[in-house]
Amino acid sequence: AVTYPCNQRSEMTELFDTYAAEYEKLSGDVNTQVAEVANLKGERRKAKLKKIAKDMEELKAALKNLDAELLTSSQELKPKLRMRVSNYRSDFMAIEREYQNATSTSINMDRDDLLGGRTTEEIAADERTRLLAGTQRLEQHSQSIARSKRIAAECEDVGQDIMQNLGRQREGIERSINMVRETNAEVTRAGKGITIMQRRAMTNKLILALIIISLVAAILLIVWFKYLRPLFQ
Questions:
Q1: How far apart are CA 67 and CA 47, in angstroms?
Q2: What was the pLDDT predicted at 151?
Q3: What is each CA distance from 173 to 60, 170, 176, 179, 186, in whole angstroms?
Q4: Structure pTM?
Q5: Distance between CA atoms of 55 and 60, rounded to whole angstroms?
Q6: Are 62 and 19 in contact (CB under 8 A)?
Q7: pLDDT-based confidence at 6, cuts 50/70/90?
C-alpha cells in the first residue's frame, strides 16, 4: 500500500488525511487477503474472494473521496495532493490486477477440480508462479513507498525554503516600518522646530515695530518742544 510520512500531514486538509488513512488501511488489508487466496481451496477461497470484492468497492469509494477532496483543495496544496492521489490510483490499479489474476486462478482451479484435479508437479509449478508474482508485487509496493518518501522529502525541503523566504521578507517589512516611523518622528520634530522659528520671527518683527514707533514718537516730541512750541508762545 502507498503511505506518506506524518510530517507532511500538517500541510494537508484533515478530511483528506482521513480518507488517505482509510485507503492505506484498506489497501494493506486487500493486499494481504489477495496473497492468502493462493493457499485456500474450495468454499474458503470463494468466501475470501467475495470478501475481497467487497473491500475493493470500499477501496474504490475511498479513492473517489480523495479525488473529490483534491478538487476542493487550495491551489497551494493541490500539486502535492494530486501526486498522492495519482500514487493511490496506481496502487489501486495494481491491486485490481492482482485481484483479477487471483479470480482467474480461482476459476481455473475450480475447473481443474471439476476435471479431476492436478498433479503434484502442476500444483508446485503454480505455487512457484504465485510466489514469484507475490514477490514482484511486494517489490512494486516497496518502490512505490520509496518514491512517496522521496516526494515527501522534496516537498518538505520546498516548504522549509518557503518559510525561510517568508521570514526574510517579514524582517525586511519590519525594517521598512521602523524606517517610516523614524522618518515620521524626524518630520514631526522638524515641524515643531519650524513652528518655533516662525513664532520667534514674528516676535522679533513686533519688537522692531515697537522700537521704530518709539523712535518716531521721540523725534516728534523733540521737534515739538524744541522748534514748534516756541513759535506758538
A1: 31
A2: 86
A3: 49, 5, 5, 10, 20
A4: 0.41
A5: 9
A6: yes
A7: very low
